[in-house]
């Protein structure tokens, strides 16, 4: 087991190209990654990485180990999934991955209800916008907001659930007469405004306010820094915000539930999937902006 753990650390460094990236992916310290790599190199009697200014590069020996390790990882994951699928108890761990906004603004009360129904299940909630690897059991179930169905991994079992809509929101404290001088609040990766939002003809003469992530975007809107585009389930539930009068709601993406074929046979996974599908369906009005 220890040897395999060392190989997991090796794969994480090889894939990220850095010790820091591996530490973040594995949720361990920088020093733990270095120690495990040193142990593996000592066991194999070969240097596996060369440290360059740009990061960690595989040596010749490292390239060979990388190819073999990928095969080992795949076989190990298949074995774990098949053993896991035989578990028909309603106890044990349940790992769920979903975006922070879906967790904090929509589904956390539903997750709480599930734990009340099944107190012997240990729920582990991973809230991140980064995709998780279900094959290596970083999660048992992933709930994703998908913008392009073609981007879904073909090896996963997926259920298309509810469509999500978005609209333009503004602080209730911002007076209508101030709209002519308003700014757009955008996340840095958003790029140009979509045509339906640009047609509102606001903020044409002002540079936008740029933020890093959704929570800062909401906070900036609450503070009256400007108008912003938010998923309806986020904007409509915030008592300090309101939808811009006269603006429309537009399709944003679709919630998908993803799991592995073997994993979904496990009783606690099956119970959760059936439960959360019904709960997400019950949120159709909030997700569509029809409240």
Automatic annotation (TrEMBL):
PANTHER family: HTH-TYPE TRANSCRIPTIONAL REGULATOR (PTHR30537), TRANSCRIPTIONAL REGULATORY PROTEIN (PTHR30537:SF3). InterPro entries: LysR-type_TF_proteobact-type, LysR_HTH_N, LysR_subst-bd, WH-like_DNA-bd_sf, WH_DNA-bd_sf. Belongs to the LysR transcriptional regulatory family. Residues 1-59 form the HTH lysR-type domain. Keywords: DNA-binding, Transcription, Transcription regulation. This is LysR family transcriptional regulator. It comes from the Bacteria.
């Amino acid at each position: 087991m220890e040897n395999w753990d060392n190989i997991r650390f090796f794969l994480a460094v090889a894939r990220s190209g850095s010790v820091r990236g591996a530490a973040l992916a594995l949720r361990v310290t920088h020093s733990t990654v270095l120690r495990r790599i040193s142990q593996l190199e000592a066991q194999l009697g070969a240097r596996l990485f060369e440290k360059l200014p740009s990061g960690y590069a595989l040596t010749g020996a490292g390239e060979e180990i990388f190819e073999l390790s990928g095969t080992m990882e795949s076989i190990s994951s298949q074995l774990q999934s098949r053993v896991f699928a035989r578990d028909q108890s309603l106890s044990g761990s349940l790992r769920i991955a979903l975006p922070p906004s879906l967790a904090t603004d929509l589904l956390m009360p539903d997750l709480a209800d599930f734990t009340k129904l099944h107190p012997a299940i240990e729920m582990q909630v991973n809230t991140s916008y980064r995709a998780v690897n279900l094959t290596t059991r970083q999660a048992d179930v992933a709930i994703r907001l998908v913008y392009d169905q073609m981007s879904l991994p073909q090896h996963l079992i997926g259920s298309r659930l509810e469509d999500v809509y978005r609209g333009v929101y503004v602080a209730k404290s911002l007076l209508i007469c101030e709209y002519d001088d308003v700014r757009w609040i955008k996340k840095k990766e958003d790029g140009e405004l979509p045509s339906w939002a640009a047609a509102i003809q606001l903020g044409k003469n002002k540079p936008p306010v740029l933020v890093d992530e959704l929570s800062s975007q909401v906070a900036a809107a609450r503070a009256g820094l400007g108008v912003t585009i938010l998923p309806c389930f986020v904007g409509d539930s915030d008592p300090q915000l309101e939808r811009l009068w006269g603006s429309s709601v537009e399709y944003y993406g679709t919630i998908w539930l993803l799991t592995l074929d073997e994993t979904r046979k496990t009783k606690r996974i099956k119970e959760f999937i059936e439960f959360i599908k019904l709960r997400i369906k019950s949120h159709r009005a909030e997700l569509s902006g029809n409240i």
